[in-house]
Amino acid sequence: MGSLDLLIEGGFVIDGSGSPGFKGDVGISGDVVTIFRDAAPDIEVKNQLDASGKIICPGFIDLHAHSGLVILAEPEHESKVHQGVTTELIGVDGNSYAPFENNSDLEMFIKLNSGLDGDPDIARKWRSVGEYLSQYDNRVAVNIAYIVGNSPLRIGAVGWENRPPSSKELENMRALLRESLEEGAIGISTGLDYPPGSYASTDELVVLCSDVARMGGIYHTHVRNHLGDRYLDPFREAIEIGRRSCAPVHLTHLVHRKNNPGGAMPILDLIEEARGQGLDVTFDDFPFQYGGTRALVVFPDWAHEGGPGKLTEVLQSEEGRERLRRVVEPQGKGWDDMRLTHFKQPHNFQYEGKSIAYVSEILGKHPVDTLCDLLLDEDLRTCYVADVVDEKVLDHVLRHPSFMAGSDAMLLGDYPPPSAYGAYPTILGKLVREQGKLTFGEAVNSMTFRPATRLGLKDRGLLKTGMKADIVVFDPTTVNGKATRDNPRQLSTGIDFVIVNGVVVIENGRHTGRLPGSLLKPRGM
Ligand SMILES: [Zn+2]
């Protein structure tokens, strides 16, 4: 071995494999690590970092990131990199921003999802997946892995209509999919509560996932929550798609809804049953009872038919309003718990963090009218955070051996969900140190090796000699998330160093401004 660029000394190494760890040093040459059990031999070292009393582990991998657009505008990505995140999967929920042959479709799609993924002021000149992804390499703080959403494929082949594709359109969709996979997508995502991707039938998704399976990719799904019994049937559909297509299935944000009294165990049993039958089924979740999404999610599919232009007409028309008032229901605990955020009109800033019920009272309007008026005023970009997850069952979920971490964090507005700034450190601080619900070894495993394996990233997720140098050094006595529902924009504590591809991005808890993130193309695609 020649010299080392950096030696991280005297720490306790948790290598990501799930084992408890060992005392050791971690050396970095270029972007590759060398592990020394106990202590490094006497070799030339350019820089040293004292990690006594600290844990050294692989960088965290977020399986559900809503950062694809905002990171291009704010490449330092403070909220996530301060959590120890070194790789993010973007393109989730069926909502990816390539391929788009037609720029006006792309603009409409960004507007439709601006309450989830933002609408930052960036040049939007790309068409193909390859062109889109070329913007990330060495220009952002974290590594990016990409999954193609079924919505852009459907828009490209079918348009914005709610109807099955013709056989020619289905072939076009498959061609777009295969091209996306060849250009770097690791599989296909769906978000079956979000039109127009939600217009896809089970059979349509089986056809697409069969191509994905043949090309070595995965099916990453936000399930069709309104299907059948609205409890287990959505997960049954996802597993059926995996069974019929042979694609590995990843159930993302396995949120167990508060309003379902059956608990999370039957969902975990379904996963176990499928795994027992040889299906490759995994899941991720975030460690909070609060989650959010674009406010448009409350509107039924018919209101979205034809795309955002038509949706705007529905929201504007008295006839549309009347129909909506009859069928739209609040999410979670009710209108008084759905707190709004992400406004751009100064006269609406006063509503940041306020509930739809509260704003409706001030305006003297029905909650549905309040929502319609605000969304029209805000170009559809407003989103909300609500108390939707049953925290009691979160314990079962987090302790499950297939659990992986994913933030599902919208990075928008003054009141984003707490996972935007706190998901990973909260697992390490609150759930591991304070509550002893899992060990540091298990928690780190769920944030590193398990997701790396899921994404087919063979050289990340483990601290082993020869692996890529994505590393977190954290203080096990102080690590914690500080973000709360009422005060969500709080950087975490105890994440002292974060290294991406061998480059120090967080140094003594401060961002260095370096942007070493790479575009990761797994499975030799
Ligand atoms: Zn989702």
Secondary-structure blueprint of this entry?
Blueprint: E1 4-13, E2 22-29, E3 32-37, E4 45-50, E5 55-58, E6 60-62, H1 70-73, H2 78-81, E7 85-90, H3 103-112, H4 129-133, E8 143-149, H5 150-157, H6 167-182, E9 185-191, H7 202-214, E10 218-222, H8 233-245, E11 249-251, H9 265-276, E12 281-285, E13 290-294, H10 301-304, H11 308-316, H12 318-327, E14 339-341, H13 356-363, H14 367-377, E15 383-387, H15 391-399, E16 403-405, H16 419-434, H17 440-447, H18 449-455, E17 471-474, E18 495-500, E19 503-507, E20 510-511
Parallel strand pairs: 1-4, 1-5, 6-7, 7-8, 8-9, 9-10, 10-11, 11-12, 12-16
Antiparallel strand pairs: 1-2, 2-3, 5-17, 13-15, 14-15, 17-18, 18-19, 19-20
Helix pairs in contact: 5-6, 6-7, 7-8, 11-12, 13-14, 16-17
The chain binds zinc ion.
Task: Describe this entry's structure for a reader.
The protein has 525 residues and is an alpha/beta fold. The protein has two domains: 60-289 and 389-507, Alpha-Beta Barrel (TIM Barrel), CATH 3.20.20.140; 306-387, no CATH class. It contains 18 helices and 20 strands. Strands 1, 2, 3, 4, 5, 17, 18, 19 and 20 form a nine-stranded mixed sheet that branches. The chain has an eight-stranded parallel sheet with strand order 6-7-8-9-10-11-12-16, sandwiched between helices. Helix 8 links the parallel strand 10 (218-222) and strand 11. The protein is globular. The two termini are 31 Å apart. Bound molecules: zinc ion.
SS-derived structural category: alpha/beta
What value does the Rg take, in angstroms? 22 Å
Q: Work out the number of β strands.
A: 20
**Could you say which small molecules are bound to this protein?**
zinc ion
Measured distance between first and last alpha carbons:
31 Å
Annotated CATH architecture of the largest domain: Alpha-Beta Barrel
Give the DSSP E fraction (strand runs of 2 or more residues). 15-25%
Unreliable stretches: none
Proportion of residues in helical segments: 25-40%
- Which CATH first-tier class of the largest domain would you pick? Alpha Beta
How many distinct folded domains?
2
The gross shape turns out to be globular
